[in-house]
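**Backbone geometry record:**
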Amino acid sequence: MMGNRIIYRVADGVRIPGTWRHAFIRNGGHYFLTDLFIYADGLIDCWGLVNVEEFKEKLRTGWVATSLPEGGDASAHELADWKFGEPESWITPELLVAEVRDTIDTLNGRPDSTGRCLAAVDIFLADRTEENRAAAREAFLAIPETQRRYALGDMDSKDWPLRILVAGPGGRTYLSFDGTVTQKDYDSALRYFAERDRWRAEAATQVPADGPTTSHAPALKLYHSFPAKPSDDPGKLALRHDYPAPITVEGTAYPSVAHAYWALSVDDPETRRAIATAETATAAGTLAAEAPRREEWEHARTAVMTHLLRAKYAQHPELADILVATEDATLIYDDMKSSFWGDNAGRGRNWSGRLLELVRSELRGRRAGILGA
C-alpha cells in the first residue's frame, strides 16, 4: 500500500512521516475522489485527523466510502464530474482498516501482517509441526486479501507457494480454484522456499558493484559558529565556510570562503573590494546583504561555492586532511541565515554539506590515484 509515497506533517515542530492512498469521501450525498493520508503516529487524515477506531466509524457511516452506488454523483476536485455507471469496488471496510494498520506498522519500522506471516512460515519450515503450520496459516490469512498476492515479492509465482505451504497436502487454500493440495504441489512449494532461502542468504552477502548505498560513518553536524581566528587544532570548525583560512581566487585574496562568496555575489567593484577586506565573515555578509546580487546569481551560486571550496582545500592541505578524515559521513551544515546552504533542523536544503561531501570525494579520489591532480 505504501510504495514510495512518503509525505510528512508537522506536529509540535516534529516531522511525522506518512503516506497516502486514493479513496472516496461521501459528503452531502456527493462522492469525492481524494486521498487518505496515513501517519506513523496512528492518525489518518480523511478531511480531518482521526485515530484508527474513529476511522472505523468513518467507514461505518459511509463518510469514507467503499461501496459506490449506481448513478451516484462523483467528482475529482477541479478536474471532472461524473456519475457512477456499473461501479465495482475491490475493497471492503475491513480490508481498508487492515491495510491502514499495516501501513502504520510499516511507517514505524515494525513487521506488518506480511512480515508476521513470513516469520511464522520460517518457524514452520524449521519445525514442521501441524501446530506451527496452523499458526503460519492463521498469519497468512491475516494479511489483507488485497495484499496476499504480493507477500513473497515474486511477481511470477505470486503467493502460490505460500498458500500451498500453509494448506499442506490434502488441504485447501483460500482460493477455490486451487482445488485440493497434492503432495506434488506441496513438494514444489517446499523446493521454492528452499531456493528462496538460498537467494536470501546470497543477497545478504552481496555488495552493490558500485559500493554501499549508505554511509558507514555516523553523520557529522557542523554547527553555526563565528570563528574569529585560526586555531592550531580547529577540528570540524575548520570545515565552516567562515573559518579564517585565506584563499586566492582568480588573483584576488580573501580571508575566508565566506568573504569570497559574498564578494563574488555583488556586481559593484567598490562593494566587492569592501566585502573582500571586511574584518569578519559576518561583516562581509552584512555588506553583501545591503547590495544587489549579480544577475543570474541564484543559478550560479552552487558552482561558485564548489569552486571556492576546491580552492580552500587545495590551498590548505592540513584542512583537507580534516575533511577527508570525516570518511563518508553525511555532513549536516547549519546556517542560521540561509535555508539554502544550511540543513537547519531538517528545514533547509543543506547545500553546504552536500558540496563539502563532493569536494571530499574528489580529494579522496585524487589521493587514491583515481582522479588526476
